[in-house]
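> call design_seq(struct)
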């Protein structure tokens, strides 16, 4: 298995890793968060190329992996350049999770992660996702079984817990004591979902409670927030979710207002091309709209112009309208600069 640390040539200086997840070195302190519906291969690969230190897949249910892997294998697509790659899976049955983890391990991930943070009712109320944080003994069983069997490091992503069951300190210690190699913490409760204010103090408490790497998540919206969270909590790295949608340049330490129009135009072309290659032209264009809306919000195009661009159903028409709008507004033409491939 190729590891990031093996990419140094003998005559090149060895670059120290920022931290290690088990035996896997990680170079960097900002990571794209696994987001259902967003952290697919097109977006992951773009963020990784711009500086995200790891690639986490969208989470996949254990039963789908065990019984229908051929139908969902595309969710685990990655390129060698994305390593270290983390496959995230979820479920509530230790034996089924073990079977799923052993099966996806054959696809060559560097790390396997257990989702213990998803707040969606269909997931949490079935005992998976953040539902697992109500069953610490089951979490211990899962991590003990999987870490003893897998050849790659096992990690977990958690939340604070539930409003009436804030079990984050206990769960974090259980993860470490049962072979977990790192833990990511979304500093919100199940009931908060993705709203309200993240409690960074929780991340700091977990960092003090365990010796494995801790990755903080929640309310990192700007480049300055990356350092603020690290300084406040002592975490080893920071996960960025919604703030990266429309601004993957945050991993290159650029805030939205620092991204020039020509870079946005180039990125929309590149991202849409990857979407169509991955999903097919029609589906790729349809799914890409949520990204396109965020990209176009980076700069003040007239509302009517944005609406006209986003209403285009055909990819070629969409790009033609986009190019014309950027040419009128900023005299930017796609042919005036080099694409990044």
């Amino acid at each position: 298995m190729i590891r990031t640390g093996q990419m140094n040539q003998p005559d090149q200086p060895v670059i120290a890793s920022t931290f290690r997840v088990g035996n896997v070195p990680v170079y960097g302190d900002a990571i794209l968060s696994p987001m259902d519906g967003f952290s697919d291969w097109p977006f992951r690969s773009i963020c990784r190329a711009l500086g995200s230190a790891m690639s986490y897949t969208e989470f996949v249910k254990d039963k789908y992996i065990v019984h229908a892997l051929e139908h969902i294998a595309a969710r685990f697509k990655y390129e060698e350049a994305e390593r270290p790659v983390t496959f995230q899976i979820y479920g509530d049955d230790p034996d089924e999770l073990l079977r799923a983890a052993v099966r996806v391990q054959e696809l060559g991930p560097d790390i396997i992660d257990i989702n213990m943070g998803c707040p969606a009712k269909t997931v949490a109320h079935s005992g998976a996702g953040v539902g697992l944080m109500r069953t610490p003994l089951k979490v211990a069983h899962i991590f003990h079984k999987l870490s003893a069997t897998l050849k790659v490091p096992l990690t977990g992503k958690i939340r604070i817990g539930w409003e009436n069951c804030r079990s984050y300190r206990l769960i974090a210690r259980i993860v470490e004591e049962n072979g977990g190699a790192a833990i990511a913490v979304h500093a919100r409760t199940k009931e908060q979902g993705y709203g309200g204010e993240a409690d960074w103090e929780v991340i700091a408490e977990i960092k003090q409670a365990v010796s494995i790497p801790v990755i903080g998540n929640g309310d990192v919206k700007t480049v300055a927030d990356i350092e603020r969270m690290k300084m406040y909590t002592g975490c080893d790295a920071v996960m960025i979710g919604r703030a990266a949608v429309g601004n993957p340049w945050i991993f290159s330490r650029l805030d939205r207002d620092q991204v020039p129009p020509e870079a946005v135009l180039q990125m929309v072309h590149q991202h849409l091309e990857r979407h169509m290659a991955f999903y097919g032209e029609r589906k790729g264009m349809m799914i890409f709209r949520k990204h396109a809306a965020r990209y176009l919000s980076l700069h003040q195009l007239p509302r009517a112009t944005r609406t006209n661009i986003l209403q285009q159903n055909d990819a070629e028409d969409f790009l033609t309208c986009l190019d014309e709008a950027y040419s009128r507004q900023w005299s930017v033409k796609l042919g005036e600069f080099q694409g990044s491939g």
